[in-house]
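Researcher: Before we compare anything, I want clean individual predictions. No alignment, no superposition, just each chain on its own. First chain goes here; please echo the sequence and then give the C-alpha cells.
Model: Echoing the first chain and its structure:
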Amino acid sequence: MHVVRLASETDFDGWRRAARGLRGAAVAPSDVLWTVDGAGDLFGETEEPAAATECFTVPREFVEVAEQAVLHSSGERFALLYRLLWRLASEPELMHIASDPDVARARDMARGVSKAVHKMKAFVRFRLIEDAAEETYVAWFEPAHRVVKDAVPFFVRRYANMNWSILTPDVCAHWDKTRLVFTPGADPADAPSEDALEDYWRTYYASTFNPARLKIAAMQREMPKRYWRNLPEAGLIPELIQAAEGRTAAMVGQTPSEPSRRVVRQAQRLSRDGSFEEGAPATLEEVAAGVDFCRRCDLWRDSTQGVVGEGPGTARLMVVGEQPGDQEDLAGRAFVGPAGKVLNQTLEEAGVPRAEIYVTNAVKHFRHELRGKRRIHQTPRTSEVTACRWWLDAERRIVRPRVIVALGATAALAVFGKAVPVGAYRGRALSLADGAQGVVTYHPSFLLRVPDEQEKAKAHAAFVEDLKFAWGLAA
C-alpha cells in the first residue's frame, strides 16, 4: 500500500506530483491511500512511489476540474481524482462522458466549490471592531468548502482601502491595505457579534424585499439557512415571508404607476418612425413604454400587451427567445409559461443564475390564431421579426451583453440578421457586429415537443451544455 501524505487539505500541487509519479509507476488506485499531514493508516505500509517510467498528458478539462474539486470538503476527492487520472490512460475521452459516475461526481464537486466561492462573496458581513487603534472590520464565515484562498482576492479588490479580517474554521485571511496574510482557523467567539451597521443592513434588505416575487424554495437555494446566523438581515426573513401575501394583495390593489409623459410621448413617436440615428431609446424604461405603443407591424392588434425583456441592465449574458406565448401575453413578462419553466430548470442545471441574465424575445407581441377559445401559437413571419428587431437592437445597445444566446431559428434570425441553422451552428461562439459573441441553441419549447424520451434527454443535455458554454464565454 502506498500512503501519500499531503501538506494540507488543499495541497493540489502535492497531489499532482504524487499522482504523476504513481500513474507513471503503474500503481493502481486501489493500492493508494491519500492522507493529509500524516493522518494516515498507522498499520499500512508506507512506500514512496517509484519514479515515473513514462511521460503522459491529460486533457485540460481534467486539470480544471481537479483544481476546483481539490477544494471540496469531501474526503474522497483525492482518491476520486487519481482514479480518473488512472482511467484517462485507457479512456482519453473520459471527461466528455457526462454520464460516467466518476466524471459526474468530480464535476459536481467542482460546481459545488464554484458555488461556495459565489456564496462567500455574497454573504460575508463585516463588523466594525470597537476601540481599535485603526478602523478595522472583522467577519466570521463558514464556507461549505475550502474556498477562502480562492475567494479573498475579490475582497482585496473590493475593500482595498480598508483593514479587514475574514475568520473561518479552516483558515483566516487578513488585509492591512498593503499585504494579504493567511493564518490558521479561528473560533466564532473571536469575531464581533454586532455593530452599528446592522440596522442599516436590515433596513436595506427590508426595503428591497419584493413580496410579489417571493419563491421560498428558490430563496433558500440562493441563501441557504447555513449562512443565516451570520447575516444581520436573516432575522427579518420569517416576518417578511409571513407578511408577503398581504403586502402582495395591497400592491395588486394599487393603481399601477404610469411612465412619465416625456417617456410616453417619445415612445409613441419612436414606435412608428424612430431610428437609432435620431432619438433612439436610451433606457430600458423607454423601450418598455415604446413596445406598448409599437405599430411597426400588425401583431399589436390581437395581443393583450407588448412584452419586453427583464433582468439587470448591465447583464453579461442576454437570452433571446422567439416571442411571448399565451401566458406571457397575459402576464406581460417573458418566459413565465411552460417554456419558461424549462428554461429556469436548465439554467439552474447549467449553473447560470437567472437573476444575473437579461431575458427577452425577438418579437414583442404574441402571434397566434384562435381555435375556439384557445389561442394557438404561430411562428412570426420574417417581416415581423425584421420590424421588431429595432426593439431588440435597442435592448442590446443599452444592456451591452458580452454574449447573446439565440433560442431557436426565429431568435437567430433576429440576433444575426440572417438565417442560422441551429443544428449546424449550436455549441459555437459566433462573432457579432457589436463585438458580442453569439451562441445558437434550441428553444425550450422544442424540448417539450420531442416525443421520444431518449431523444428528449439528449436534447436536454445538449441545451444545458450550450447554456454552460455561453455562461463561460460571458465570464
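Researcher: Okay. Second chain, same rules.
Model: Second chain and its structure:
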Amino acid sequence: MNQGNVPVITPKYPLLGDRVQSTFIDSMFIIFMMFVAASVLDRFEYVPDYVRIILFIALWFIYEPLCTTLGGTLGNQIKQIRVRQADDTSKKINFIQSLIRYFFKILLGWISFLTIHSNSERRAIHDLAAGSVMIKV
C-alpha cells in the first residue's frame, strides 16, 4: 500500500529458530568473554572480588540490554534480526525497555517464547512486556 508517496514496508518477523540461535550465540559469546576476563585477571597478583563481581554483572546483565539498545547483540547481528519498538519498527527500543525485556526474558527463560506462535508479529512474552518486537533485516 501507499500512503502519499511513501511505500509502506511490512516487516518480516523472525522464526523461533532464528531467535533461539541468536540467544545461543550470545550465551556462547558471554561465556567466552568470561574466560577471557578470567585469563586477564589471573595475570595480576591481587584482584579485588568487587572487580570480578562487576565484570560478571556487566557480562551477564548489561551486555544484552546495552547492545539491544545500540543496535543488536552479536547473535542478532549474525542472524540478521533486530529488536524494535512494537508500534514503530523503524525505531530502536530505549535502555529502560531493553532492561524490562531482558528481566522478563531471564525470569521466564524458555517459557517466554511460548507466545511466539500465538500472534502475527511472533512476539514473545518479554517482547509484550517491553513493547518490543523482533524483525528480520
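Researcher: What stands out in the second chain?
Model: The mean pLDDT is 93. Additionally, The longest helix spans residues 16-42.
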